[in-house]
Amino acid sequence: MGKIQAIRGMNDILPDQSPVWQYVESTVRKVLAQYGYQEIRMPVVEQTDLFKRSIGEVTDIVEKEMYTFDDRNGDSLTLRPEGTAGCVRAAEQHGLLFNQTRRLWYAGPMFRHERPQKGRYRQFHQIGVECFGMVGPDIDAELLILTARLWQELGLSEHTRLEINSIGSSDARREFRAALVSYLSDYTDQLDDDSKRRLETNPLRILDSKDPRTQEILQGAPVLDQYLDDESREHFQALREMLDAAGVTYTVNTGLVRGLDYYGKTVFEWVTDSLGAQGTVCAGGRYDGLVEQLGGKPTVAVGFAMGLERLILLLETLDLIPASVNNDADVYVTAMGDSAVAPALKLAELLRNELPAATIISHCGGGSFKSQMKKADKSGAKYALVLGENEIASGTVGVKPLRTSDDQQDVELTTVASVLKNLLS
Predict the structure, then answer these.
(1) Kindly report the CA angle at 321 between 317 and 322, in degrees rounded to 5?
(2) DSSP E strands: which ranges in 2-66?
(3) Which of 191, 246, 248, 356 has the highest CB neighbour number within 10 Å of its CB?
(4) Can you tell me the distance from the alpha carbon of 116 to that of 118, in angstroms, rounded to the nearest whole number?
(5) Contact (CB, 8 A) for 124 and 307
């Protein structure tokens, strides 16, 4: 029998890659903590109905991309394709939304059965942020200011730009949708295949089409802005004033819509040109109707999600991963001879007590001086500690620099922790 491989589009994150993931996740976690956002963790499997009701049955996600199966009880379950619906379900189920405001975030894998390509996978990872119960544009502005701070922390401010739009109330969109369909119906035979299909199901998504001919046809189409209700117009104007005051630059992109049925009013995308074709690194908007749509009391909400694979690809492409983000050890403790193994383990443990921030690897598995030094070098450690019979007898340990040409020095066992503390600082 042949070897079993990973499922196409579902990738392993290997030990040499995980420090970069930890760096990005911890940077996001730190920024969110600064703003008082709380983490929520939801299951990766939900009832299929949750996504049909929230995302919309006639979207690409529900029609073609969800991993859906019947469990042993005959219930239809789905691996989550996005996080918002599950977050709303959890917050509503546990009474987190009634007469209160919430700032929540989550991180984890999402699943969509689509054609894998660079930066897009069938199991992909997102960090999502969802805010509930705040009606004004100030919370929309906070989310965008927060994201701008995150780009600053990651060194991406020069490589990302913000596009915003208002897609108005559901009544305004209904009117606009009818006008758009009426206009495009005269050009049906000239539209690309995706847009033809969307004309029946989700015509607003045609505005997103990458097809040059479709974009040409759209030049003469009705514009959503003409149909905006007064409340959405005022909300959007106030949001722009807040972003201006905070020094967050943006462009208004009137063609920007979101692909999911539950969005309304503010929508936004942070995009980059540094990955070849324009790529979206973070996207979101308001979804004031979703909580009610899922059976809860009317609750206003706004949020965003960012894909970690694409974010990491961007940082790597631009060479923005700090040199300190690696798996390297600080100290590698060797044991020369059987009699040194237990004392070496004990020494390593003592050093972990004294130097809690340091990474200390104990050599295990025996071997000659040369082979142990080879492994010490490969670990990336700055210093190797040499402990053998002679050192044990004299109460010393050899401290050997591995990244400089300095000589090995013998140090009293009782002082080795403080010597290393000085050397590592």
Answers:
(1) 150
(2) 38-39, 45-47
(3) 191
(4) 7
(5) yes
Q: Say if CB 225 and CB 254 are below 8 A apart.
A: yes
End-to-end CA distance of the chain: 53
In the chain, the percentage of residues whose pLDDT exceeds 70 is 97
Q: What mean pLDDT comes out for the span 294-315?
A: 94
- Whole-Å CA distances, 189 to 193, 203, 251: 9, 15, 33
List, as one string, the DSSP characters of 169-190. Answer: -HHHHHHHHHHHHHHHHTTGGG
Give every CB contact of residue 340 below 8 A, 6+ residues apart in sequence: 387, 388, 389, 391, 392
- Tokens at residue 282, please? 């973070």
Q: What tokens does 30 get?
A: 């730190």
* pLDDT (tens digit per residue) in 364-401: 999 999 999 999 999 999 999 999 999 999 999 999 99
* 288 contacts 300 by C-beta, under 8 angstroms: yes
The single-letter code of the amino acid at 242 is M
Q: Are 142 and 16 in contact (CB under 8 A)?
A: no
In angstroms, the CA 66 to CA 307 distance is 17
Neighbours of 297 (CB within 10 A): 10
- The sheet that has 67-70: what strands, in order across it? 45-47, 76-79, 67-70
Amino acid at 75: D
Q: Hunting for tokens 């690897």 — which residue is that?
A: 361
Q: pTM (2 decimals)? A: 0.89
Q: Which of 80, 75, 50, 53 is nearest to 65 (CA)?
A: 80
| Tokens coding 335 | 């044991």
Give me the DSSP letters along 397-417: EEEEESSS-PPPEEEEGGGHH
Model confidence at 169, pLDDT cuts 50, 70, 90, reads confident
Would you state the pLDDT for residue 420?
Answer: 96
b/e map of 367-392 (b: 16 or more CB within 10 Å)?
A: eeeeebbebbeebbbbbbbbbbeebb
